[in-house]
Amino acid sequence: MDVWVCDQYRVISFWIIKGTFIGLWLFSYGTIVYFVLKGFIPRPGTAIDARSVLFLTVSNPSWWLGLVASLSIGLMIARAWHIWPVVWAALIFTGLFPAALFAIFVVILGKLKQAAGQ
Q1: Entry pTM
Q2: Which of the residues 22, 27, 87, 98 has the least number of beta carbons within 10 Å of its own beta carbon?
C-alpha cells in the first residue's frame, strides 16, 4: 500500500522516503557499533582528537560503503514489507539517541574551536 506524492512534473513514491529513513537509522546505529568495535570509547581522564573521529568516519572508505549498504537495505525493507505505524514511532523515538550524540559532538567541537581561537 503505497502513498504517492503527485506533482505536476514528477511522481515520487513514499517508500523511497521511508526506506531512506530506515537506512539512516541503520547507519546511525551502525556507526555507534563501529566506534565500539574499533575501541573508540573514551575512558575517564582521556581525550579524543576530532581528527581521529574524521579519520574513522569521513576519510574511511568502509564507512561510506556502510552508508551505501544501509541505505540499500533500508530501501529494500521499505519496498518489500508494510511496516506498522507502531514500528515507525519506535524508529523515530530510538533515532533520537544517535541524533542527540551527533548534536553533542557538534556542540563540543564548536566550543573547542571557540576556545582555541581565544
Answers
A1: 0.75
A2: 87
